Amino acid sequence: VFDLPSPPRRIEVYDNSHIQGAHAVGAMIVAGPEGFIKGQYRKFNMDAETVKGDDFGMMREMLTRRFTRLLKEHGDEQNDESSTAWPDLLLIDGGAGQLSAVKGVMAELGLHDLPVAGVAKGPDREAGREHFYVEGKPSFMLEGRDPVLYYIQRLRDEAHRFVIGSHRARRSK
Description:
This protein is α/β, with parallel strands linked by helices. About 35% of the residues lie in helices and about 25% in strands. The protein has helices spanning about 50, 55-75, 95-110, 145-170; strands at about 10-20, 20-30, 35, 40-45, 90-95, 115-120, 130-135.
């Protein structure tokens, strides 16, 4: 679906949550061939003054923090086939705007070869009608019974569950 050279060994999925900009939290979940890798999930508490409810700004801040650190700690492994620190695919919860924000961060950091796709909920937020956004291609949908669609929905739902839980915890604190 995403024109990857081989099945991904590490998929990172990003989502964010806030209530009118308050208690903004971003989250990353990780999945591999064996399923979710919960020990590698990360949450990102956002500076409310910086993002002020700006979903694109939150996505930029989260990805900048994540990949600046990854470059610092594992930059020399970026093109190493055996490296498990670098993702083979980034899935972003959102559409063309979020994808553009992420691609901007990747360009600033010199990460041009990292596959990124945006997953936007369909009309009326109905499951099964997601639109996919990949740079250089028109948006597209998958067939309703496609197993890849089910897998991506599961990844997106897990990211959503994790970020909502992190947001609630931050809000109650």
